[in-house]
Amino acid sequence: MARGGGPTDQDELVVTAAILYYQQDRSQEQIARELGVSRPTVSRLLSRARERGYVQIAIVPPSLDTALARTLREELGLRSVHIAGGVADGADPGPVLSHQVDMALAEADLQAGDVLLVSWGRAMHSLGRCPRPPRPGVVVAPALGGNDSDRPWFQPNEVARLWAQALQGVPRYLHAPALVSTALLRSLQAESTIRAVLDLWDCAKVSVVGIGAWPKPDPSYTAAGFPVDDPAIRFAAGDVAGRSFTEDGRMVDFPSRGALLGISADQLRQVPRSIGVAADQSKAKAVVGAARAGLIDTLVTDLGTARAVAERMASPAALTN
């Protein structure tokens, strides 16, 4: 700024470039000729205009079909459905779905001391890296143990850390593997520091869980300990927090997996608000199954996935496939 607080010549040049580009639809090449500067200089001027707040860009998604959300809510027996207008990247859906997750969390009215459970998965890891309205004092804990995979989205403690950081909450960590022997499971459940986290599963106010779809072609799932070759897999449509289910909502057990140190289906059903996140049309069957199993009562998804779920629901024969 110039002495006395007025704009400098540089500020005036920045604003002029912004007006020509955003209001008069001039190309950067035209602006460069008019201002007597190089094209790269115009690009830098426009960047400064955004950085300094002279230009504020708002993204206004098209109005969503509220009838679609209502149909899914009624057909699936859910409390609420939040649909993003964009197309979410299944590997990194956070940027598109984040606002809808915020809306779902606002409905839950989390307060300091309330417990929020998070599961694993790409969606949960992606959403954990997104900015979020702060909720200081909220306790964030994993809904299951970890594993040996080097993929960060398979590490519930890391997901819990990201979410707690975004919410300005308090992370709690479960330092134990998800897949264990029955004998080790009993021993872990009796250990005081682990028991303290497991007890949070019974008093949680909200859970946010990714909805996984079976079959899982990604080899990283094998590395994470998923029983992809178990004969029982042919009955599964998806999983939530490591708990698998069919499309009609029956729980599926994998004998080859061993014991799972994770929140049970019954415990998930007792959480007052369970938010399921899915972003991929291939997850339509899994979304239907998760809702029918009662593992979620709120759905956050994108428009393409929502339409795929609606089409799935409109085809009764699909439930037997």
Structure description:
It is a single chain. By secondary structure, this protein is an alpha/beta fold. The protein has 2 domains: 9-51, Arc Repressor Mutant, subunit A (Orthogonal Bundle); 66-320, 3-Layer(aba) Sandwich (Rossmann fold), CATH 3.40.50. Helices cover 40% and strands 14% of the residues. The protein has 13 helices and 12 strands. It has helices spanning 9-23, 28-35, 39-51, 66-76, 94-108, 122-128, 156-167, 182-190, 192-198, 220-223, 265-270, 284-292, 303-313; strands at residues 80-84, 115-118, 139-142, 170-171, 179-180, 206-213, 238-240, 243-245, 251-252, 259-260, 273-277, 298-302. A hairpin with a 5-residue loop joins strand 8 and strand 9. The chain is elongated and about 75 Å long. The termini are far apart.
Order of helices and strands: HHHHEHEHEHEEHHEHEEEEHEHEH
Domain module count: 2
Q: Return the structural class.
A: alpha/beta
What's the number of helices?
A: 13
Keyphrases for this structure?
single chain, 321 residues, Arc Repressor Mutant, subunit A, Rossmann fold, two-stranded antiparallel ribbon, 12 strands
Brief digest:
The protein contains 13 helices and twelve strands. By secondary structure, the chain is of the alpha/beta class.
Give me the secondary-structure topology.
Layout lengths: L8 H15 L4 H8 L3 H13 L14 H11 L3 E5 L9 H15 L6 E4 L3 H7 L10 E4 L13 H12 L2 E2 L7 E2 L1 H9 L1 H7 L7 E8 L6 H4 L14 E3 L2 E3 L5 E2 L6 E2 L4 H6 L2 E5 L6 H9 L5 E5 H11 L8
Parallel strand pairs: 1-12, 2-3, 2-6, 3-4, 6-11, 11-12
Antiparallel strand pairs: 5-10, 6-7, 7-8, 8-9
